[in-house]
Design goal:
Helix content of chain B: over 70%
Distance between the termini of chain A: 46 Å
Number of helices of chain A: 19
Radius of gyration of chain B: 23 Å
Number of strands of chain A: 15
Strand content of chain B: under 5%
Structural class of chain A: alpha/beta
Radius of gyration of chain A: 24 Å
Order of helices and strands of chain B: HHHHHHHHHHHHHEEH
Oligomer: heterodimer
Number of strands of chain B: 2
Structural class of chain B: mainly alpha
Shape of chain A: globular
Number of helices of chain B: 14
Distance between the termini of chain B: 34 Å
Strand order of the largest sheet of chain B: 1-2
Strand content of chain A: 15-25%
Amino acid sequence: MKKLFMSVFTLLFVLILAACGNSEASTNTENESSDSENGSEEVVIDSPVEIEFWHAMSGDHEKVLTEITDDFNGSQENITVKLVNQGSYDDLSKKNMAAAKANTLPVMTQAYEDWITEYLQNDLVADITPYVNHSEYGMSEEELNDIVDVFREANIWDGKYYGLPFNKSTRIMFYNVDYLEDAGVEVPKTWEELRAASEKLTGEKDGKQVVGLGLENSVTLEFNQWVHQAGGEYFNEASGEFMMNSPEGKTALEFVNRMIQDGIARTAGEDGYMSGPFTRGDVALYIGSSAGIPYVAGPAEENGINWSAAVLPAGEEAATPFAGTNVSIFASASDEEKLAAWEYMKFLINTENTTKWAMASGYLPVRYSALESEEWKAYTAENPAYGVGEQQFDAGFYDPRIVGAYGLKNAVAKELDRVLLGELTVEEGLEAAEAMANKELGK
Amino acid sequence: MQKAALSKGFIYLILILGSALMLLPFIWMVSTSLKSAGEVMRMPPVWIPSDLKWENYAIAWEMAPFARYTLNSLIVTILSTIGELLTTILAAYAFSRIHFYGRDIVFAVLLGTMMVPGEVLLIPNFVTLSNLGWIDQYEALIVPWLASIFSIFLLRQYFLGIPQELSYAAKMDGCSNFRFLWTIMVPLAKPALITIALLKAIGSWNAFLWPLIVTQSKEMRTLPVGLTSFSTEAGTVYELLMAASTMIILPMIILYLILQKYIIEGVSKAGIKG
């Protein structure tokens, strides 16, 4: 037995040494695509091309995406797009990484901005600017500017396009219409009003304890919303600095923390999502993703909860984060495949399809012309909650597009959670958050 | 007598409480699978839905090609369980009964590999399979799981507990290693083998990440992958997810009920049978 243990230890030691020696060697080499796709060679698709589009849309979302894709496949001769569902975003990201190592990347993928940054650093993602500007199959100035600014800009790195926006959501404020009416409270438009309304709405109601404001468990993960509303900045992409440890960051954290400590705001707790407590009537207001609308609508109707939604209350300024993914083309694809993918992307987010997509999925249309369409207008008149997102485009901003943005936000969220749990003061929490952020950024 | 009955009653009470606690999640699962969307999130939890929504099962079954997934899950589970049993029996015998040069070092190396977390192996394994051209094939779902160090270790310990005298006697009678293994050792180790098979079957049946990573087409996917159809980034349709989960878990529960007497034997006995 002793001999066995000794040999196991020796072996482990050798393995560790070997592993340390190897970590240097894992640089990405295989990248055979040339960067000279500036339309010097005219590419035409005159024979059948099949391209794969990896995505993370499931359930009803997948059904609509399949419909639009079938339409595209039927609309022309040679291009066939094959949809491949890869599970959750997290699974898709893992799979893309595995496929990149194995040189089996698909032609297209859904991707968050910070993923694209990472792909960009490893030369994996194709610059689609030549396609955007192409005289024949590109987009006119008008068509390009028709894409909602905040979504379009999120896909530009150093003046070049690396993707087009596809499924985008925003954060909105749901409210319980009856509770507000009973308490004589107007829908809050500013932080002061939000606090006053939450105070007034907290208390006994039909034999249950109602809390004024409901926040998602991920409130600390998405704290950039509050920092921007306080007039500050969460992270500066250009300088690569974590900016929240500032007077504005302090104001934001203090504001949210005080409401939680005073018992007029709560997080979702064990349910994970606030849609549960909100549709039970446990909270009066609820700030969450517009992608949650379908999860509110059904149960609310069944439980007789009369609800609506409004834009986020403004602090020093109005600020609304927009999230969701884009469609990108991998650099490993052949020229024909890239062109085929480009044709599909144009189709996917044309006015008609982005409207259809938004109406069926609960995401936002990504074109101004779609917002103007009769269909959409009728739809939002019918379902006002879906019309809230577009009222906030001017106040929109997007997450820092840095490699490991998710890890950074997670590290910061852990420290902010400790503040909300009362373990740290606001100042201590911000110090700790900055330290963790810098550690995460390798500073 | 009185005393014995009392203490027995007390033991049963503890056991009943314990089993109720263990069963609670299952009961919640079945009950939630029959609720309406509004009842799922009600607090305190609803245990008996006001009206049983059996259609949840039909809707859930329609959300993904579950029939095909079931077939794939069965193929993968059965083949990888049989395959693992074969490799485990041969390896455990070699490590417990055959003396060869460097045996303990080899065994130590194998045990060492158990320390490597599966996540680390994900990408290298994917690359290997990709080079073999196995992505999106049954090979990718089965071959990497045909050997388990843990099972080999478990069975080796069990084999070591079987008296050496048996093999001496068999050798005297001119029995080959191979024949001795299959006619004497394997029947004696039945409880351990059933435990290994069951652990493997459950693991294989419930595997999620690996099948998702190595398959591309809907035709090749397995049941747990189908469960992702009920979740999006903004929430989960619990009543449908639980309906699908209930259907998926049934075969494993039935298998366990059939085999449970062997499992208890495998865990509680050191494996000496006359």
